[in-house]
Specification:
Blueprint (H helix, E strand, L loop, with lengths): L4 E2 L6 E2 L2 H12 L4 E3 L2 E3 L2 H12 L5 E2 L6 E2 L2 H11 L7 E2 L6 E2 L2 H12 L5 E2 L5 E2 L2 H10 L5 H6 L9
Antiparallel strand pairs: 1-2, 3-4, 5-6, 7-8, 9-10
Keywords: Metal-binding, Nucleus, Transcription, Transcription regulation, Zinc, Zinc-finger
Main location: nucleus
Protein name: C2H2-type domain-containing protein
Length: 159
């Protein structure tokens, strides 16, 4: 029987080496699986993405750009973020990714094209992705009640 593995960052225990490795990649911001500009920490998430975005489940199409989605709700969100004529659009000169805020574009440029950590904690730890900073703050109790209620986190990339 394998021994329990302990995360040195947050104290979480794992029965399997693969589960521990996958978890540690999240702390380090390392996502080895990639598809169409998006990064994934494990194969299952990549498979879900491929099925919903590129596979049989992807049956709803954006009428402006043709991108496929699994649900009409995802198309609606995509339309609001990518094709909204009323909001200012910030486009990455390197890869063409679109953002609705200047900060979003700056974070993207820092983490995707300059290899810098775009998100830093007051304790000194730095992360390339906001989700990893949020996990760090949550696991180390750096988030106060007010901050955690105001801190918004998007787990789904819809554009």
């Amino acid at each position: 029987m394998e021994s329990t593995r302990l995360c040195t960052e947050c104290g979480r225990q794992f029965q399997s080496r693969s589960g521990h490795s996958r978890h540690m990649r999240q702390h380090k911001g390392q996502a080895p699986y990639r598809c169409c500009g998006k990064m994934f920490f494990d194969k299952d998430k990549l498979k879900m993405h491929r099925n919903h975005i590129h596979g049989e489940a992807a049956r709803e199409a954006c009428f402006q750009c043709g991108k496929l989605f699994a649900t009409r709700q995802q198309v609606t969100k995509h339309m609001a973020v990518v094709h909204n004529a009323n909001s200012e659009n910030f486009t990455c000169d390197t890869c063409g990714a679109n953002y609705t805020s200047k900060q979003g574009l700056q974070d993207h440029t820092a983490s995707q094209h300059e290899g810098r950590a775009a998100h830093a904690c007051h304790c000194g730890k730095e992360y390339r992705h906001a989700t990893n900073l949020y996990r760090h703050k949550k696991s180390t109790k750096h988030l106060t009640y007010n901050v955690s209620r105001q801190y918004k986190l998007c787990f789904f990339i819809l554009c």
